[in-house]
Amino acid sequence: MAHENDAVRGGCIFAHFFEVTPRDLISDGLYNDLAVGCHAEPHRQASIALLAQALGATKQTAQSRVRRVTALARTTQPRGSSSKTEPSSGGDLAEACKEPHAQMSQIV
After folding, report:
1. Where is this region: Disordered (predicted)?
2. Are 88 and 70 contacting, i.e. CB atoms less than 8 angstroms apart?
3. pLDDT per position in the chain (108 positions), as tens?
4. What is the DSSP string of 17-28?
């Protein structure tokens, strides 16, 4: 389970879930597995990395994804662009991943 702590991103304190969750679900173990907190900067990147790891990501799968995206960026060009454009180093992907929704889609 992921838990957003950053109020700017719609987060709330974790205790709120216990207030709004039906008691039978709590007693059946809904929250038995520890939630991974997603914190605001300066801890955001570490939080996202821990969440990805909890979801099964490994350094190898992350590196593989970056290699695939970088290779794709080198072989594709935006419409109407010149063939003399520089290939992507993957930095544009890193920038895109700073958006909260992009982060989650990159993880899963």
Report:
1. 72-108
2. yes
3. 788 888 899 888 888 888 999 999 989 988 877 778 888 899 999 998 898 888 888 877 777 777 777 777 777 766 665 555 454 455 554 454 444 444 444 444
4. HHHHS-HHHHHT
The answer to whether 58 and 48 have CB atoms below 8 angstroms apart is no
Q: Which of 33, 36, 38 is nearest to 8 (CA)?
A: 38
Which residue type occupies 13?
Answer: I
For 20-35, b/e burial (b = at least 16 CB within 10 A) is eeeeeeeeeeeeeeee
Domain chopping of the chain, boundaries? 1-43, 57-78+87-108
Q: Is residue 11 a contact partner of residue 38, using CB atoms and an 8 Å limit?
A: yes
Q: For residue 53, which amino acid is it?
A: Q
Q: Which residue has the tokens 């454009």?
A: 85
